[in-house]
Amino acid sequence: MMAAAAAMLPAQTAAAGGAPPGAAGAGAAGDGDGGSVPVTSLSPQELHELRGRLQQELEALGGSAQQLGRLAGAFAASQRAIQALDASAAPGQRLLLPLTSSLYVSGEVAAPHTVLVDVGTGYYVEMAAEAGAQYCRRKQERLRASLREVEQGAAQRRDALGRVQAVLADKLRRQEWQLQMQEAQGRAAGGKV
């Protein structure tokens, strides 16, 4: 028998949605007790459903990973901008301020060693430039840690999907073989009469 025949999948895994965006949805099937179900005990229909759920989870995890990567990149860019402003700007110096990634407004430096940091939900905190850069660094570290968790969850789902597909293919081959044997037996029995 193939190695995947002994594969077990978790009955339930952590749900996605909040912070940190780790992993999504259900594993194999289950009654919510956190136990495991051998994939070889599932019917082909259940394996098809499980394969679909795993594929959906992989897509969701991929989207989460991309979003986390973009956010970490934005904080890295903010950290570099704060450090450059702190190092080279002088009061009264004219510059372009980014409102979005493609919209800039003209501005003037008032206090080069002080920055306003968006800490979420519309709240801004005035910080020394160095503190603002450290804040961005900490946010990057947290986002990268979350990204690693998402990537680990995706790797687990890919492994589980491979096991499910292998068991499903094996079961479908066996069903086809049994059908062929039954047809051959029917033809042999029909020819003797």
Key attributes of the depicted protein:
15% strand, rod-shaped, 193 residues, 6 strands, two-stranded antiparallel ribbon, Helix Hairpins, 2 helices, disordered N terminus, alpha+beta
* Poorly predicted parts: 1-33
Give the helix/strand class.
alpha+beta
Beta percentage is 15-25%
* Main sheet characteristics: 2 strands, antiparallel
Number of helices: 2
CATH class descriptor name: Mainly Alpha
How are the strands of the largest sheet arranged? Answer: 1-2
Tell me about this structure.
The protein is of the alpha+beta class. The chain has one domain: Orthogonal Bundle (Helix Hairpins). The chain is 56% helix and 15% strand. It contains 2 helices and 6 strands, in the order E-E-H-E-E-E-E-H. The protein has helices spanning 44-88, 129-192, and strands at residues 8-10, 36-38, 94-98, 104-108, 114-120, 123-128. The strands form 3 sheets. Strands 1-2 form a two-stranded antiparallel sheet. Helix 1 runs antiparallel to helix 2 (129-192). The longest helix is centred in the C-terminal third of the chain and has 64 residues, at 129-192. The model is unreliable at 1-33 (pLDDT under 50).
Q: What's a concise summary of this model?
A:
Helices cover 56% and strands 15% of the residues. By secondary structure, it is α+β, with helices and mostly antiparallel strands. It has one domain (8-88, 114-186): Helix Hairpins, CATH 1.10.287.370.
